[in-house]
Amino acid sequence: MTEKRYIIYGKEGCPYCSFAQDYCIAKQKELVYLDYTENIEALKDCMSFYKMKTVPIILENDLNTGLTKFVGGYTDLLNYLK
């Protein structure tokens, strides 16, 4: 069975970052939340890399293979885990 976890890049005060965490918990998905509140420059680099204008930035990480797949933002996560 493939074990997956979700990596969420976000910052304090972002409601969609909190919603994404809550959704993963409700769906019983393992998650890692990376809070970039104190490192906005690194967050901007991440946003540029993934071509995202907002946070959260969500990735799916396969724990068996190590492969990481870009999911998108909060709405993308909802659609992805339907």
What does this structure look like?
With 82 residues, the chain is an alpha+beta fold. It has helices at 15-26, 40-49, 74-80, and strands spanning 4-10, 30-35, 57-62, 68-72. Strands 2-1-3-4 form a four-stranded mixed β-sheet. Helix 1 (15-26) links the parallel strand 1 (4-10) and strand 2 (30-35). 18% of the residues are buried.
Question: Helices and strands in order, then pairings?
Answer:
Layout: E1 4-10, H1 15-26, E2 30-35, H2 40-49, E3 57-62, E4 68-72, H3 74-80
Parallel strand pairs: 1-2
Antiparallel strand pairs: 1-3, 3-4
Residue stretches low in confidence (pLDDT < 50, at least 5 long) are: none
Q: Walk across the major sheet and give the strand order.
A: 2-1-3-4
Structural class: alpha+beta
Order of helices and strands: EHEHEEH
Distance between the termini: 19 Å
What percent of the residues sit in helical stretches (DSSP H or I)? Answer: 25-40%
- Summarize the biggest pleated sheet: 4 strands, mixed
Shape descriptor? globular
Q: What's the β-strand tally? A: 4
Mean pLDDT: 96
Question: Could you name the key traits of this structure?
Answer:
single chain, 82 residues, alpha+beta, four-stranded mixed beta sheet, 3 helices, 4 strands, globular
